[in-house]
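Would you kindly consider the sequence and fold I have copied below?
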Amino acid sequence: MARSRTQTLLSLLKGLAGAILLTLLLMAAMAAFAAMGRISDSLLMALNQLMKLAAILLGVTLAVGRGGRRGFLTGMTLAMLYMALGYGCYSALGGSAFSTPEFLGEVMIGAAIGATAGAVLSNLPARRRTA
């Protein structure tokens, strides 16, 4: 049975909402961690990259699920949206001036992670429903 556009959009929104929520929770935890102790810039950058990775993986899992359809495309689209929104918010809040090469690099790395996760998830066997 083919998925309708509405179902695909709703799954993307569900995955994006999950990724954003996880990002906000992890950012609060990182801020508390930074306030309690002195952490280096390199550790903060590494934690930021891990946070983005975890958020993309959660979002793709929510959007595609085990045995889902169109995992590659859905995962790639979700990750690109997430990274574009994140970079846009970062620039808008005064993080740095907008840099096209930096933006494209962020989006492409996210797209690769999301597409890979989506492809793996869609090729896993679907879980049996117990009723």
In short: The helical segments are 5-36, 41-63, 71-92, 100-123. The chain has a mean pLDDT of 88. Residues 39 and 102 are 25 Å apart (CA to CA). The radius of gyration is 16 Å.
